[in-house]
Design brief:
The chain has about 325 residues and is α/β, with parallel strands linked by helices. It has two domains: about 210 residues, Spore Coat Polysaccharide Biosynthesis Protein SpsA, Chain A; about 100 residues, no CATH class. About 50% of the residues lie in helices and about 15% in strands. Strands 1, 2, 3, 4, 5, 6, 7, 8 and 9 form a nine-stranded mixed β-sheet that branches. β6 and β7 form a beta hairpin. The model has no long low-confidence stretch (mean pLDDT about 95).
Length: about 325
């Protein structure tokens, strides 16, 4: 029985990208693993030929009878896996040489943690060379999940017994938000973590789902937010939900009036207070997250609306961190005024 099951769905993948992904796993400095590759584009026989060209007994190749999509393919891969740990892998990315060994050691040393991600570096046609490091602490990860994915999905390694015993599945109605829902569900039974080590290279290119299907992904985000608030017992008006979806978590919004910024502060304070009362996620970390998002939107309002938010920030009860960019924006607005 292998210690680790590396699982990778593939679908109409470019040959160059697929070969780099496969080789990055086969060359790991840890070799007690099976490598399960599931073709979700069964009509594409070229992909089978590429995988078959690697004469490695650790590779197990499967095909879906018809295209199922990423979440359904991951659910099948969870069923196929036999290892104590399951490591996820994208078909167009690269795992660092020590990825498996370091994550196995981490989970061995931390039996209370059931899922761990890693820091990663972006590369490819766009967004090159940027390193992303998510929060390492369980409380911070949980506090951030409402706002964004606080673990980078293809970097994760998890304990198979958790998904088996508790029948945890990917939400097949989502094309992108299934990872956040998965963390939310598995987090009911275990702690979550991120390693500081950069053990993964994440390829950015124009064919990414996140680039091609933005309207659908935004609709999923709205649905996820609504369900999160419902489970948390936090009642928001339709206007407040629209404000959260369109301005609080949407990074490319343009805030051009003080009234909108004030409503954002009121909304973030409301959900922070409600969580402190209901304790859905750790209160201190959630309030700090709300404070950070308020500051981000103040920067946005300064740049796109010429709004000085100094007075608003002085009266808010949310905990605030020092932000140099916002200070510069406020000084510029004072100087210009």
């Amino acid at each position: 029985m292998p210690r680790v099951s590396v699982v990778m769905p593939i679908c109409h993948t470019r040959e160059e990208y697929l070969r780099q992904a496969i080789v990055s796993i086969l060359q790991q400095d840890y070799d007690d693993f099976e490598f399960i590759i599931l073709n979700d584009s069964p009509e594409n026989k070229k992909l089978h030929e590429i995988v078959a060209s690697y004469k490695d007994a650790r590779i197990y190749y499967y095909e879906n009878k018809q295209t199922l999509g990423v979440p359904a393919s991951y659910n099948r891969l969870l069923d196929l896996a036999k290892g104590e740990y399951i490591a996820l892998m994208n078909h167009d990315d690269i795992s660092h040489l020590q990825r498996l060994s370091k994550q196995v050691t981490f989970l061995d040393v931390h039996p209370d943690i059931g899922l761990v991600g890693t820091a990663y570096k972006k590369f490819g046609e766009i967004n090159r060379f940027k390193t992303i490091e998510n929060p390492s602490d369980d409380a911070e990860i949980r506090a951030l999940l409402l706002f964004k994915a606080s673990i980078h999905h293809p970097t994760t390694m998890l304990r198979r017994n958790l998904v088996k015993e508790h029948q945890i599945r990917y939400n097949e109605n989502y094309i992108s938000l299934n990872d956040r829902q998965f963390y939310y569900d598995i987090g009911a039974y275990t702690k979550l973590a991120n390693m500081r080590d950069v053990l993964y290279r994440y390829r950015f290119h124009k064919d990414m789902v996140s680039k091609r299907r933005k309207p659908e992904i935004f609709a999923e985000q709205c649905d996820f937010h609504a369900k999160w608030f419902e489970k948390a017992g936090i009642k928001l008006t339709l206007q407040e939900r629209e404000l959260f979806d369109n301005f609080v978590t949407r990074g490319k919004c343009h805030i051009k009036d003080l009234e909108t910024l004030e409503k954002i502060e009121q909304l973030l304070s409301k959900i922070s207070d409600a969580n402190r009362h209901n304790l859905i996620v750790p209160a201190k970390e959630f309030s700090e997250t709300c404070g950070r998002y308020l500051v981000k939107r103040c920067v946005n309002a300064a740049i796109y609306g010429g709004i000085n938010s100094s007075k608003l920030l002085k009266k808010t009860k949310l905990p605030l961190e020092n932000n140099i960019l916002l200070k510069i924006c406020h000084l510029a607005l004072c100087w210009r005024g």
